[in-house]
Amino acid sequence: SSPTMLRLLLLLCGALGCGAQAPLAFTMLQWTRVSKGISVFWGNATLGGRLSHLLEGRNVTQVLPLEPLAAWERRRDAVGNYLTSFSELVWFFSKERAVMIPYTQSLCCRLGCYLFPNGTARSFYEVSLNGTAFLTFHVPTATWERRWPGRDAVASFAQQELTKYPQTTHDLQHFLNTTCVDILRAQSTETGPRSRAPLVLGLTLGVLAVVGMAGGIFLCTGGSC
Ligand SMILES: *[C@@H]1O[C@H](CO)[C@@H](O)[C@H](O)[C@H]1NC(C)=O
Ligand SMILES: *[C@@H]1O[C@H](CO)[C@@H](O)[C@H](O)[C@H]1NC(C)=O
Ligand SMILES: *[C@@H]1O[C@H](CO)[C@@H](O)[C@H](O)[C@H]1NC(C)=O
Ligand SMILES: *[C@@H]1O[C@H](CO)[C@@H](O)[C@H](O)[C@H]1NC(C)=O
Ligand SMILES: *[C@@H]1O[C@H](CO)[C@@H](O)[C@H](O)[C@H]1NC(C)=O
């Protein structure tokens, strides 16, 4: 039967050391829930399976001591400021269109990179809206691609908004393709302490991207695009 087959395969896998073939990963998750103009944030980051950062409300905490305290405090404040700006922008849109947007939107960003045992790396940035794939970032070309199945105007507008910031897409590409992978390479070879300063850049940029997107979603669902 297939369960027996599966057990055999797993045994074989264990014997051949398939487990060791698992890629090393750095992953960041960030949820933004907007309801009646109020934004709620939550997120975490994982490095090699261990929790490295936690985002609760507008507070981001460094769980693994990856950055020296002074540098971390500056970064933490920068993230807090982005989240505050985002909340204010959403509140502004909601006031503008109070009658039109009494509903809830749920955005989720997932970004990071994998390093495979053969030295190959892969990076990703996926955004979903209400649990449905919304946009993905194509790292080689630094472009946003639409994934949203229906109501294409919403995703198109968000994509247009995000594309307005070439510095952001360039930084994002650099973070995902280079910084993120460097962190994993350093981790995999354990070359000792090194600056992991750009770690949180991804989180910050994730938020920036969402700011543009929020504008798109609110404008479009308000019926003006
Ligand atoms: C990060 O959050 C996700 C979703 O809630 C959860 O499944 C995962 O276990 C968390 N990661 C860690 C390392 O706590
Ligand atoms: C965030 O940090 C502030 C000040 O440090 C604290 O008062 C607040 O309770 C924290 N909020 C959460 C959700 O952890
Ligand atoms: C997301 O879901 C809420 C209901 O939970 C709905 O009101 C809203 O219109 C949805 N957003 C989009 C863009 O479809
Ligand atoms: C390295 O491994 C990954 C995952 O198994 C695979 O997708 C990729 O094609 C491999 N690359 C090379 C150059 O062998
Ligand atoms: C991504 O990284 C690879 C390997 O380091 C490099 O060869 C490639 O040029 C980079 N691509 C971009 C778009 O930065």
From TrEMBL:
GO terms for biological process, alphabetical:
negative regulation of coagulation
Presence of keyword Zinc-finger: no
| InterPro entries named in the record | Endothetial_C_recpt, MHC_I-like_Ag-recog_sf, MHC_I/II-like_Ag-recog
What UniProt keywords apply to this chain's record, in alphabetical order? Glycoprotein, Membrane, Signal, Transmembrane, Transmembrane helix
The UniProt entry, under SUPFAM superfamilies, shows:
MHC antigen-recognition domain
Alphabetized Gene3D superfamilies for the sequence: MHC class I-like antigen recognition-like
Could you tell me one molecular function GO term of this UniProt entry? signaling receptor activity
Q: Which residues cross the membrane?
A: 199-220
One of the record's GO cellular component terms: extracellular space
The leader peptide range reads 1-20
- Which PANTHER family would you find in this protein's record? ENDOTHELIAL PROTEIN C RECEPTOR (PTHR15349:SF0)
What name does this protein carry? Protein C receptor
Protein's organism: Anser cygnoides (Swan goose)
Q: What is the lineage of its organism?
A: Eukaryota, Metazoa, Chordata, Craniata, Vertebrata
